[in-house]
Design brief:
Elements (H helix, E strand, L loop, with lengths): L1 H19 L7 E4 L3 E4 L2
Antiparallel strand pairs: 1-2
Length: 40
């Protein structure tokens, strides 16, 4: 159950980051297996 909550929080964070921080300079996106990668 704890794992499910953690995954849910991570998903919410990634969703918020991808929608909110794309416009800011030096924005990064999370790629599973690679980690945070600068958006070109």
């Amino acid at each position: 159950m704890k794992k499910f909550i953690i995954i849910l929080i991570l998903f919410a964070l990634v969703a918020g980051i991808s929608t909110g921080c794309k416009s800011s300079s030096g924005s990064r996106e999370f790629i599973p297996g690679k980690g945070w990668v600068p958006v070109k």
